[in-house]
Input
Amino acid sequence: MTTIAQLTFIPLATHNPTEKVQELIEHLAQYDVKIEIGYLSTTVIGEADTVFKLIREVYDTMALEQERFRFHVELLSPER
Output
């Protein structure tokens, strides 16, 4: 089952948020998902298990590396 997640990462305690967002996008590239980069968010498309694993790992990584952040996740219904 393929699912779609729209991710918005907002680093709150940095002087260079663009760099932090770019690091996140580079991190996403290691997963077996299709990535679509938008102006305000990034969309990932892939198997549901992979997408959910990605979300958890990204959140855990950001929690360790970032002082403060917002991480918005919007899930679309699965495609069969």
About this structure: Helices lie at 17-28, 48-65.
